[in-house]
Amino acid sequence: MAGMPMRRLLLVTVLMVAAPTAINAGGQSSRLLHPQAEAQALDLASRAITVRSVSGPGNQTIKVAELFRDALVAGGFASADISITPVDDTAFMVARWRGSDPALEPLVISGHLDVVEAKAADWQRDPFTPVVENGYLYGRGASDMKFDGALAIAAILEMKRQGFAPRRDIVIEFSGDEETDMKTSAMIAEQFKDADLVVNIDGGGGSLDETTGKPLYFSWQGAEKTYADFELTVTNPGGHSSQPRADSAINQLARALVKIGAYRFTPELNDISRAYFTKAAQYEKPEIAAAMKAFAANPADHSAIETLAADPAHVGQIGTTCVATMVSGGHALNALPQRATANINCRIFPGHKPADILAELSRVIGDAAVQVKDVTEGSVANDASPIRADFVSAVEAAMAVAYPGVPVFPSMASGASDSMWFRHHGVPSYGASPVFIKSSDDFSHGLNERIPISNIAPGITYYLSLLAALAK
Ligand SMILES: [Zn+2]
What we know:
By secondary structure, this protein is an alpha+beta fold. Helix content is 32%, strand content 23%. The strands form 6 sheets. A 6-stranded mixed beta sheet has the order 4-5-9-6-10-20, with helices on both faces. A 4-stranded antiparallel beta sheet has the order 1-7-8-22. Helix 4 crosses helix 13, helix 7 (271-280) packs antiparallel against helix 8 (286-297) and helix 11 packs antiparallel against helix 13. The chain is globular. It binds zinc ion.
């Protein structure tokens, strides 16, 4: 191809010429603290990106599992302590580092092997060819989440090299279908429903200033909303369109949709979102910041609710939302409709059961002719994890070593992750990836996905501290 930039280097070249310095997220040069782990993180991430671990025909997810297993075995894990389980067209991996006290419940490090589909024709670079360019690693899975997986494995192997001996078992598990139906995610959570705590390395993370590139803050994810789909159906005897009836499936459905569109669930707050609104306010525009602080102080504050509800970045943080996403009805241009249906997609605030939200929607509709049915697939209700003091102090200490002075606070995600399956069993799960990015660099699931490689050195430092504290 013409116009190949001179600075585009294949990783192999980068690794060969790697000098013993790194650029940290603040832009300053620093000595490599863990050269072996840092080189391994980039190497493993790059090799994982080459594997097309996409759901459907030709799914190679099992090869990512084998790549990670081989790295763990080469780093001292017993082969017998690692299993790869094929499920449908994918597979999941579980590795166990045995602790000295078998009576303790395990610490689980949770990630996933699969990635979202990527069409090479739409990308500037081939999505399955890792490239390092201008300080970024490019490729499908760079940010979600092959780089994260490689970083954690490299850090764990560094702990082994340093002679660390965990008291509790450390389980490293990677699901194989987190991006699609989450069947393996559910199986893994079932297997480890007695875990002490889960660190989900596919959630949370740090934010970099858009202009300076300096770290702004780090937030760990302690809750996420429950995903639900509700199908509305209205049926009618129908008839010839030249002979209209008083009732109409389409009209009844339309009235129901208008009511749902106008309805607002009661705004609410939990410990996680209160801490988030209080601490994250300083990074927002003054009007939003004032609303965040007012809402944290009083979740019934009318003007704060109006401001936050009008902001797409925050409307999902203040309560349950339900919105119509699909509609269909009728069967011929010249017939009265016999059936009209719509899908209402809800993101339920932690602590509510989908059945309660369904009942609330039925009350809002107030028309017995409109049937409401839960058609959700691949999701379970989950509550917020408690703000556990041992986790908070471990994550704050780890950040203080990796990124001194950077504020740390919790957050709630509006999307679903593997944490949901653990929280469903009552196992505390915390999204705590040490990766910092600019929000303008968030191309997860999208085109030209990339990650700053300046995350490697502090990321290793962070994991060494965090995992040592939690596995003690
Ligand atoms: Zn992910």
